[in-house]
Specification:
Elements (H helix, E strand, L loop, with lengths): L16 E5 L4 H12 L3 E8 L14 H15 L3 E5 L1 H17 L6 H20 L4 E3 L4 E8 L2 E8 L16 H5 L1 E2 L7 H10 L21 H5 L8 E5 L23 H8 L10 E6 L22 E7 L4 E6 L7 E8 L3 E3 L11 E7 L7 E8 L2 E11 L6 E6 L2 E7 L2
Parallel strand pairs: 1-2, 1-4, 2-3, 4-7, 8-11
Antiparallel strand pairs: 5-6, 6-18, 8-9, 10-11, 12-16, 13-18, 14-15, 14-17, 15-16, 17-18
Helix pairs in contact: 1-2, 1-6, 3-4
Length: 414
């Protein structure tokens, strides 16, 4: 077993060729520097994934500035540099996916898909054409390995900086992808990364972290969605707290997993099917596909006393269901379901057989604290029952489960 996973890239006897995804930020810059210092043959590559400047907020994440900064870092480090245009692939695999998911009333996570489909697929293949042995990124996560039955199994581990841990964003990677990935800064704190960048006089040392969609930058999401999803007036309905529809949420989650029949699991883990007749119309919206569960901003409904939160959306009928106040029961669920086709095991050797259960910690969004849950595998898919009710579970999000610091698997929430 690799006992020093945070320094995985230090243990390799023969230093090899690595293509670093230089984004123009401080993290990837330092990743390239550290690899070069360890004796790897390093090539810097900038990915241009988006052309449409009309939906970005000026000066927040302009790709031309990022590309220039990446080039200057490569020049400073004395490594080859090139840019690659992946905008067509990005539109097909990420942007179109976003439009489809929002149109269906689901909440996508493009950053997770960007890592699986772009950085560690399209970009990896481009690196292989340069005869690279590995690709490296500036992610705050770590890589380890374990030997099992004579086979090397790669482990995805949380970054040492708990405030920056990005293992959640990599929860869809496969063993093959992990085998060719390096995460040089995963064992460092963010402050240490900036210190290294300053000591090496890298132009990105004090650059603000980019925010927003992966390699697009900070966007006005409604504007972005309106490129294909047109506004459509619909009803905003407020749902009372005491509706009997919540009775099924009161089922005890302290039962033994063996006692969970499908009816109980479905009651705990599937979205509540609200009906328009169950509430009161209190406003109008411009399109249910622009909203997600847990959302507060953008409803533009006043005079309610307590703040309104989205508890469900119906894109077919174009209705938004809301609840009053942070404690509305519709905001919380004790479980979620992942269809069989959407289950992904990073650790394939730990996949759960049908009819069995296991205890893991899990999260449904980046930076959310891990919480204990029971994972129950049935023929139709995986049920995840949390010890504590989770707020804002939305279809289309990813749930990731962990054993300690290790990310074991993930899935798309039904």
């Amino acid at each position: 077993m690799d006992l020093d996973p945070m320094n995985y890239f230090n243990t390799m006897e023969n230093k090899k060729r690595v293509v670093v995804g230089l984004s123009g930020g401080v993290d990837s810059s330092v990743a390239a520097y550290l690899l070069k210092e360890k004796g790897f043959e390093v090539i810097g590559m900038f990915m241009k994934n988006w052309h449409d400047e009309s939906v970005t907020i000026s000066n927040e994440c302009p790709w031309m500035e990022d590309s220039t900064d990446a080039m200057l870092v490569a020049e400073k480090l004395g490594i080859p540099f090139q840019a690659i245009d992946l905008s067509e692939e990005y539109r097909e695999r990420i942007v179109d996916y976003m439009f489809t998911e929002y149109e269906a009333g689901r909440t996508p996570n493009p950053d997770i898909l960007c890592n699986r489909e772009i950085k560690f697929d399209i970009f990896l293949k481009a690196a292989q054409k340069l005869k690279a042995d590995f690709v490296a990124t500036g992610h705050y996560c770590q890589k380890g390995s374990v030997e099992k039955d004579g086979k090397t199994i790669y482990r995805l581990l949380a970054g040492a900086d708990s405030n920056k841990d990005q293992s959640y964003f990599l929860c869809q990677l496969s063993q093959e992808q992990l085998s060719q990935a390096l995460f040089p800064i995963g064992h460092l704190q963010k402050s240490e990364v900036r210190k290294i960048a300053k000591e090496q006089d890298l132009i990105t040392a004090d650059k603000k972290d980019s925010q927003g969609l992966c390699f697009i930058g900070k966007v006005r999401l409604p504007d972005f969605l309106q490129q294909q999803l047109k506004p459509k007036k619909g009803k905003i309905i407020v749902v009372p707290e005491d509706l009997t529809v919540y009775d099924k949420q009161k089922i005890s989650v302290e039962l033994n997993p063996e006692d969970f029949n499908l009816e109980t699991l479905d009651a705990l883990c599937l979205p509540i099917p609200y009906q328009a007749t169950e509430g009161k119309v209190i406003g109008e919206h411009n399109g249910a596909h622009y909203f997600t569960v847990g959302q507060r901003k953008g409803l533009q409904v006043g005079g309610t006393g307590k703040p309104l939160f989205v508890i469900a959306t119906d894109t077919k009928e174009n209705i938004i269901y809301t609840g009053l106040g942070e404690n509305h029961p519709g905001l919380n669920r004790n479980g979620l379901f992942v269809a069989k086709k959407d289950i992904h095991w990073i650790r394939e050797d730990l996949s759960l057989p049908v009819g069995t259960s296991i205890r893991y910690q899990a999260r449904i969004r980046y930076r959310q604290p891990l919480t204990w849950a029971t994972l129950i595998m049935r023929k139709n898919g995986l049920y995840v029952v949390f010890d504590e009710a989770q707020r804002g579970i939305a279809s289309g999000q990813f749930v990731a489960w962990y054993l300690g610091e290790e990310s074991i698997g993930s899935g798309v929430i039904f």
